[in-house]
Amino acid sequence: MTLFQTGVLLFSAAALALPLAAKPDAEWTAEQSRKYEQHFLQPENPLGFPEYLQTVTVQYASAEAAEKAKLTFPGLPEEQEIAFSTRWDDVNNRHLKMAELLRRHGMKGTFFLTRPGNRNYYRNIGEKLLGNGCAIGSHTISHPSLPNLIPNEAFRQMMLIRPELESNLNTCVVAFVLPGCALGSRLEKQTAFTVGQTIQRCGYLANPEFWSNNESRYALQPGTCFATFLFDADDKNPSMERFEKGLKRQLDRIRKNPANPHITFGLHTWQDDRGFEVLDRIFTKYGHNPRWWYCTENEYAAYRYQILHGKVVSAERKGDTVVYTIRRISPHHLGSEIPLSLKFSEIPRAVRTSVPLSPVRRGLYKLPHDPDRRIPREIEWIKNSANLPLNAAIFDSKKYPGLSAGLFWDSSAGQLRGFLQNRSRVPLKLIDKTLYFPMQWKTPIRSMKSWEILPGKRDAFLFAPPAGDRNPDPNFAEGTHLYVLQCDFLMDGKPVRIYATTEVKQPFRPIPCSRDTALFLGPVPPEQLTPEHLARFSTPGRKLEHLGTGSTEQWRKQAFKPEHKCYIVSPFGTDKTWMTDAYALFRDNRGDVLIVLEFESPEENAACRLFCNPAKIRETWLNGKKLPKTVNELPLRARKGRNRLLVVRKPVRWSQEPLELAVAREDPFRQMKCLQPDF
């Protein structure tokens, strides 16, 4: 198998940490030394997120009670029974109406956005979604089907939307959903594994889809990519009956699998006014349940990651008092500052950190993060889309005057160069730098830390990935290579995040594959096609004649899609006449499309296979003869020299729907040599 083999390295603290900055020589107070040591804790959590130590002092009724007392973390905040969230996809003005409806009923939503066509959407809709207590999630830049994309383009689509959303809305994005819920491929068994690894490579913690086994499906470590039990009530015509049926099914699943106590409702805000009235009745009945935790995906992922990977490292007892030391995950990678619930087996008289804590109820408390461990309130994105050298004057921050950051890939030296410069009047402290690498490199994420950057100073770095880290598979060299630097630090005591990105475009080299050579005709009504037509069109060596003079009755090259995998064909055109005529048929779900693929065999009667999705194909012809019922990996016998395959694709509603199609011996990535037919 040629894609993302199982030997890839996951993001772990031990594997990915770069050399850390040395401790400054200046005299420090005890508090400064404590913060320094905590900042450079070697992470123990599986994703290598920064950790720190927090102490909680608890006084009990007696020394005996203190001796018996145990501290645990409830599975959900305040020992709630289930976590209930809602998911809403795409860019849609009705999101705001949904957010307001959810807020009235004590619920929350995560809105998974693509890049909006109108940037005013961020201000007019996005900021108001956050104002209603909701969260923003990622849904790629332009909503492509990820299984169709070459690895670097899938990473670019999934990763670049993070700084886009975060910098426009000043919020952390840690949840992601798949465009069209598309994950599988008929041709390639590694697709789910590859997409799942890319989700984690981009720093996402939550992926609420229609399955509840993310880690096993994606081959990730347990507790690193949170799933849910997702259901809907019909996006356009919701009903109480469908909602309750779906809810019961998911509650039953949680009873059988209490390790994942998470239910998510929703998908699209396609409802009309009547549909919203139905949802209002549903939410009236099921909102404000005191035993349910109504949360966003950010909150769920942040809380669950903390309880699964945080721990009590010591409990020092002295008389009726116990001092607990808790090892905890810093929130800026988690996307939420949600407090950690503490459950004491013996009822405390008093609980305090730096300040006293009040009980939620007997024996149950909420522990907030330390004041210097917070998520950023304002986020900057500094782009280097043309991969210019770092001496260019385009790297100044607009949101933080006096700060600059940049990233540059030096192709000649094979080095990634970056910097964070401070020309402000205050020092930058507790700097965490996270580097996200494109799919060409096996190691997805690397981290570096610095203690401070004084005014007038520049923190520069250079990193050369080791030669053995480069993936030898040529599929990982294609496309645009995106490098991302995420800097989190304190500036004048306030949490700040700056992204710096650079994109290195690789030259496109056409290869003799179906993606680059296939021709198409259509859409045309099926009655225009006769067996004689199909036999003639599938005869090798014959020039492809047109069916008529109409724009959809002529053979043409398919759309140029170098970001697609080599076995993806895109049978649609780009000229306006064809688009106008074709879309009228597509809208009515009418019109077959003919696709011709010509390939060369070095020998007579060569054994090969047709790789395809048979559900999308009406019939297939090879060398003038109709083939038996189409199935994936249909055995073929090729003649020596040129062979011509004709595929009749069924009508589709989405005019630009691609098709998986390849003729190969064993692997659709290594196709028989394809040639462009004469037309």
The CATH class of the largest domain, by name, is Alpha Beta
The number of helical runs is: 14
Strand portion, in percent? Answer: 25-35%
Mean pLDDT: 92
The largest sheet, given as strand count, sense and whether it forms a barrel, is:
7 strands, antiparallel
CATH architecture descriptor text of the largest domain: Alpha-Beta Barrel
What is the 3D form?
globular
Question: Could you provide a short overview of the structure?
Answer:
With 679 residues, the chain is α+β, with helices and mostly antiparallel strands. Helices cover 21% and strands 30% of the residues. The chain contains 14 helices and 34 strands.
How would you portray this structure in words?
The structure is a single chain. By secondary structure, the protein is α+β, with helices and mostly antiparallel strands. It folds into 4 domains: 13-34 and 377-505, Sandwich (Immunoglobulin-like); 51-73 and 310-367; 81-299, Alpha-Beta Barrel (TIM Barrel), CATH 3.20.20.370; 514-675, Sandwich (Jelly Rolls). Helix 4 (95-104) runs parallel beside helix 5 (120-131) and helix 6 (151-169) packs parallel to helix 7. The protein contains 14 helices and 34 strands. The strands form 7 sheets. Strands 24, 25, 27, 29, 30, 32 and 34 form a 7-stranded antiparallel beta sheet that branches. Strands 3, 4, 5, 6, 7 and 8 form a 6-stranded parallel beta sheet that branches.
